[in-house]
Amino acid sequence: MSCALRNIGILAHIDAGKTSLTEALLFLSGSIRCVGSVDQGNTETDWMAIERERGITISAAATHCQWKGTRIVILDTPGHVDFNAEVRRSLRVMDGAVILLCGVAGVQAQTEPVLKACRQAALPMLFFVNKLDRRGASLGRVLADLRSQLDIPVIPLQCPLVLEDKFLGMFDLMRPFFHPASCYEHGGPGSKFVDAPELYPPYIDLRAALWEAAAELDDSLMESFVAGRAPDAERLAAVLSRAASSGQVAVLLGGSAISPDTLPGLLDGILAYLPSPEDSRPPLGVDPRNGSPACRRLSSDESFSALAFKQTNVESLGRLVYLRVFSGRLKSGQRVWDASLGRFVKVLGLYRLRASRTEAVDEALAGDIVAASGLADVQTGHSLCDPGNPIIYEPIEFQEPVMSIVIEPRDSGQGAALAQAATNLVEEDPSLRLGEEAGSGRLRLSGIGELQIEVALDRLSREYGLKGLRIGKPEVNYRETISVAGKGEGLFDREVDYRRHFARVFLKAQPGERGSGISLVINNQEKGKKQGLFAQAALRGARGALESFGGFGYPLADVAVEILSLEIDAKDSSELAFEAAASMAARIALLDAKPIILEPYMRLEVGLPEDALGSVLERIKGRQGRIELIEDAPDGKVVSAYLSMRTLFGLAGELRSDASGRLTLSQRFSHYEPLPLHL
Ligand code: GDP
Ligand code: MG
To answer: For ligand 1, is residue 44 a contact (CB within 6 Å)?
Structure first.
């Protein structure tokens, strides 16, 4: 493996400029000959037709470019909250994140979960403040915002050059005062070099922030800082590079995605301040042979291991599985072990991705991100490895869907095609789920938001030619839980196949914390007995009852069940009896515990012009929304509110028309609350 590789993602709130930035970086590095424009719908990474039409990015497309001898693989992650699963999934396979912020709006609703997710994953971050060409943009304000939200230092490395309200370019704070060569300007470094006194104060402020933060990282830098001397440039660069690429600090750069000349500093920054795959922290896994923790050195000399993180269908190649190779090498035509399936799979071809284009390659090395064909049964989240040295990486988790719709074919002839197409969509985006409507057997597609479902329906019609489908009304995915503790006793004493079967099980159910899911344990003493098989049977029976309980017909959540004791008859007890008795006991305990319905609540954030505030607040209140916060933003207001998913359908459209489209909207799942009794 070479160190001349960076796998990065660009993460941001919608509209911060990810697609424009990706496009500009590809252009700068010579990968594309002209810059596509989001506004004109001809960008390289927004390649699905619907993305181009709506100007949003949906599937994390990967693309790559060369910069100063290093290959930079860019996963263009989606900004819309409905597609958050895609973002989190791609965090697993990148080595560093470029977090893009709008210079005017600063830290926005979607930035916060992104920051949190990156910190949780201990992923090194590099901040890029975009849109510095816009009036009202301020790198200093964004820096202050970030510093108040993060538990690691954020260190500015550039200062915008703004003269008489005009954005001229970026200046490098690591270099001496206003050296022409350190200026990333329109027209290239130093092309329109300006030296005006009013440029100095912001430069000096930011540089002081840089020196002070760097001093905290290194004794000799601290010595210079205390003595009031400029730090040694080489030392400064080395210390910052080490601290940033290990995630100890994050650096902050800026520019404008629509003026590519201001961006070479970002490409340089990606090489200097984000780690190569070799320098990244190896992900943890388990050895499936004995369940013990396992880890691989991230080197091509190690045995092979990879994680499947995405699937797509490409017309000419069929189903492609995107792999991140963590260790070893993979050749096209090779048979490898799918540790998640527990069997061999064969790679037919390997491809490097350039969004909609693909180039065939013979071999992928540790650190590479490639797409493989031929892996029919390999799903997102599977681990592939060397059969002699297996490892299973942590599977990828997806958010629970909060809403669903029922889809029916136009006529019976369309049924099979619809089922196949819907299966493909769900494979590509595992935060979509496919099920059957109870009773009718019609297809039910669930997802995490209206836009996601809308996009899926659009793809059915456009890509799969399924026109005229009958689509039901959007419905909320309710859950149920219990409101108090309950107890249950299950007795099974019956003759089955001319033999008496006896078991008695005592069990209790308690409300769990929200989001805790279902837990099921057996009292320690019972587990320790030699009647272990009966205990296992009781657990099976109780689990089955929990999974199928549905007092109101919804899946159960947030319940903690403990099997308290088992009454065993030395002669007549059996596993069958324990399974049945525990199932009964669980149902009785749940009913005793007063089941209630839970509904999903979403946190909505609306950015809007001031004159639309009144009507937007009215709309939200009209839907029983709880306004949490109304903040000033440079170009209007930002309203944050909690709304039940039940009341959210159609709101986005209404709000957009109130504000004549001048509005940004994001929503994410927040929590569950009991459904009011009158409903
Ligand atoms: P994404 O949603 O994050 O992918 O953002 P896009 O790249 O689609 O950009 C959203 C809008 O902001 C588009 O209209 C872009 O033309 C515009 N935009 C992006 N970057 C800049 C920038 O640096 N300056 C200005 N003035 N506009 C920008
Ligand atoms: Mg985009």
So the answer is: no
